[in-house]
Amino acid sequence: MRLVLVGPPGAGKGTQATLLAASLGVPHISTGVLLRDEARAGTPLGEQVAEVMATGGLVPTPVTLGLVEQRIAEPDAAEGFILDGFPRSTEQAEALDALLAPHGQELTAVVLLDLPDEEVVRRIGGRRVCAADAAHSFHLDTAPPADPGVCDHCGGELFQREDDRPETVLRRQQVYRAETVPLISYYEAAGLLRRVAATGPVAEVAQRIRAVLPTG
Ligand code: ADP
Ligand code: AMP
Fold first, then answer.
1. H or E segment at 189?
2. Is 172 a catalytic residue?
3. What is the mean pLDDT of residues 28-41?
């Protein structure tokens, strides 16, 4: 199963991708996580990436595409993957199609997680992530860690992402509307789009996603 999760920042893509990866047995690939790892490594590329991410803009497509190309070539992605945060523009969607086609591969479905703006603000405002593993994510109200400030999974320190501060969130929402929303019609035209309400508890959203995915 080759899935893409699309939705505004904070819609729950990472949360749902983690659950889907476990149930489908394919890797969860988040370009946000890959880029944050690159930034943390402090390479010249990482420094450039960190600057763009801090402003809430989009990192250039050749950079994200290169990371995705490398990751989906790994053996654990041979049978599929869940892409979270990529593609984020029509340009990236076309590039992804062009990457898969020579291998005779195509996407199975694209799930759009729909969430009203005010709920986006609530979800991002409470998000806390683990310094030791960017894939470990919590929410102060809806998914709090057992011990405040400490990751349940690995004991790492929890912090608020710099780009989750209110000024940057506004910019990220604008970028989503300008760059990512046009993707919806791209995938609708391809017959791949499945629209899912991302409101309500995590388990309910997961159930809605399962209901729109092809079986078998
Ligand atoms: P995205 O990957 O789309 O940016 P996340 O999966 O990181 O979003 O979710 C954003 C925040 O909202 C996290 O703190 C997460 O714990 C929380 N969250 C995710 N899904 C739900 C939900 N259905 N209900 C309440 N909180 C949620
Ligand atoms: P996310 O973790 O998905 O919220 O992404 C955090 C930030 O990483 C975004 O605001 C962008 O700056 C950058 N980013 C993640 N994915 C992409 C992508 N596909 N294209 C460009 N920039 C990206």
1. helix 181-189
2. yes
3. 93
